[in-house]
Amino acid sequence: MSSGRVTYRCSGSVISDRYIVTAAHCVRNLIDDLQVVMVRLGELDTRSDIDCDSQTRCSQAQDFEIERIIPHSMYDTPKYANDIALIRLRRRTNSCKTLFNWKFQHLILYIKPFPPKTAFISPLCLPTGQYSSVAQNAGTRAIIAGWGSMTAASNTPSPMLQWVRLPIVDNTGCAEAYQRFSANSRTPIIVSQSQMCVQGRENMDACQGN
C-alpha cells in the first residue's frame, strides 16, 4: 500500500493455514512509502471479482490481514542471498495437514473440501527430510507462477495469473554464468548451494513481480 492506494507487488505460496512463503525482497527495504498490509488468496484475474477456470468452477478471492512478517535473518539485499520470508496471517485459511506415507515413499496432502468461494486456494506440499534435496536435482522441472511483467522492458504486472515449467540447472554452471554476467557490477551476483537455478527459454521465464 502506498499513500492509501493498494497495489499488487509480489506473489507468494500458501504452505499452511496461517503461513505464506514469499521473497524477502518483497517485504524488506521497500521504496517510497510502500507497506505490506494484506495478502490476497484465490486470485486468478485481477480485473474481475469473480474468476472462473476452464472447467467453469468459479471463485472469489479472499483478503487476509497480516499478523507478522518474518524475513530470513541473514537476508543479504545486494546479493539476494537467503531471499525468503514468511508471512503469518491474522486468521486461518482452510485447515490442512501433511502425512508422509512410508509404503509408497511420497508426500500426500490431505485437504478438507473447499467451499466454492475458495476453490482456487490450496497449499503447497513441501518435501522434508531425505526428500528435501530431490527437487534440486538438475533436470527436474519446476513451476514458476505469478502476475509478473510479461516483458523485461515493462514494470506493468500481468492481470492474469501466468505459469511455466522450466528445468532446474546445476548450481555450478549457474554460478559461472552469473559471474560472467555481473563481472563489471559493483555487487557481483553469487549463487550459493542454498539457492536454486532454473533455465529460462525465449518468451518463457520469470520476470519482475513473480
UniProtKB/TrEMBL annotation:
Pfam families: Trypsin
Key words of the record: Disulfide bond, Glycoprotein, Immunity, Innate immunity, Secreted, Signal
Listed Gene3D superfamilies: Trypsin-like serine proteases (2.40.10.10)
PROSITE patterns in the cross-refs: TRYPSIN_DOM, TRYPSIN_HIS
InterPro entries hit by this protein: Peptidase_S1_PA, Peptidase_S1_PA_chymotrypsin, Peptidase_S1A, Trypsin_dom, TRYPSIN_HIS
Localization in the cell: Secreted
Major site of localization recorded for this protein: secreted
Keyword Iron-sulfur included in the entry's annotation: no
Gene Ontology CC annotations of this record: extracellular region
Family: Belongs to the peptidase S1 family. CLIP subfamily.
Protein name listed in UniProt: Uncharacterized protein
Provenance organism: Phlebotomus papatasi
